[in-house]
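Sorry, any thoughts here?
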Amino acid sequence: MFSTRLSSRGTYASFPIILLLLAAGLITGCGGGSSSPAPPKFSGDTAVTVVLSSAANDQLTEFDLVLQTLTLTNQADTTVNVLTTPQGFEFIHLNGQVEPLLTVGIPQGIYTSATATIGGAQFTCLTEIPGGGLDTSTFAYGYTPNANVTVSLPSPLTITGESMGLSLDLQVLQSATYSTCYDPNDLYTYSITPTFNLVPATFSSPATNPENGEVRGVDGEITTINAVSNTFVVTTSEGDALPRTLLMGSGSSTLYQGVSGFSALTVGTFVDMDAAIQPNGLMATRIAVEDPSAVDVLTGPLMFVDEYEPALTMWARDQQGADFVDTHVLGGEDFSFDSAVFQISGALSNLQSLPFVPSFNGSNMVPGQNLYITSPKLVYTSNPYTELRTITLVPQAINGSIVGSSQSGSFTDYTVSLAPYDLFPQLAVQQGQNTLLNNPSQVEVYVDSDTQMLNTTALAAPNTLRFYGLVFNDNGTLRMDCAQINDGVDFTATPGGNSRLEIGTARTMLRQGAGPRLQTITETRSH
């Protein structure tokens, strides 16, 4: 059984914008006396690029919110509006990653506090229920009280120089509190207390500083193309917020996958991209077209693979295309993969060097893997499932504790233990599907010289870290080709700092028999 807990829902609002991002570089003042440097001299505005990120363990499947305003207050108690146009985002897919919000001119000075207001907000958890089956519960606020929102500055922000960056990082553990994910009596309490850290960020080309300025996994649909400047605009859609737009550039170093080059891109094409934040905007470092004829594209975790027929269920965090312009489907969506083409993302270039053979197909895909799927327009025929054209395995983040390590060729293999609420162990034991994993609570994570080390915590047992990469099922063993490592997030959730408890009301999604047919909730996006 699938059920959904919802409080009063608000209207998610988002307005398309074109982001022209400037590279960040803190410029300090000139040296003064011989004993200490002079304080920075402030004059005019600094172009500040704000990016979003999050820090999460694997308890929540989705976390959506609408950021309505963001303000800074300086030492003179003067406030500056950073964001005034509401924007909606999904934060679980941003775990350890960055996504551009906007670039804005901010008067130079020292800023000591920040505030934000949030409109609608919701989070979803998933759990196995007694007797078999799964339950998904979504807890929502139609509007988030200002007292529930916290923006922390670990230290004062010095805004100076021609350009710089700020990172607004959602602390997911402190932002969502709930009594339980499943209660047969539908007696729930919960609170949504969005808690952010706002810190300086420096951006540069990944070629010179790969730890900064790299934006991974941008999924969108091309809406305009400028062949003269080699730029194009893509629309992106996250959660149930309205789409927004990003301006992308390309150059001689851009890697194309699935298409021959920039001239092969067309309006309406869906792309999966990596990019770098540079002085002239977002520069695409990789542009992949998984299906040139796609009408709909969905991205999210695989939930169920049917044992008896080629059918699957996935939780689509991102939904875009002709059938999702005005609607958002909350819950599992069902598809047939009888004639689908299986692919592995080209986001990692070292697959051939791995000490195991990376494989992804209809017989070894397992619930918990992150998928990028494409389909034609949803036309219902005698087949009750929508036919998929392509199924691409794409990178994802896992949060786990190291239990050991060993050397395997040029890779270090870290054995990582997952929490019981992680999707892999939760989804592996469902009735009606093949049992393909020997130990769904353990992942072998392969790290080499190309892995970006953004962690301050040592890579050693029993430390908890976040690992980002492609997860494969290798004959019953989960193995990750790791692209990035961040400090981990505690396994146990802690209450939010500000709490307004709500009583949840229930709506139910029913599983029909052993197959993946699920009742879903379709919501209308408001323009």
Remarks:
- Residues 225 and 232 are 4 Å apart (CA to CA).
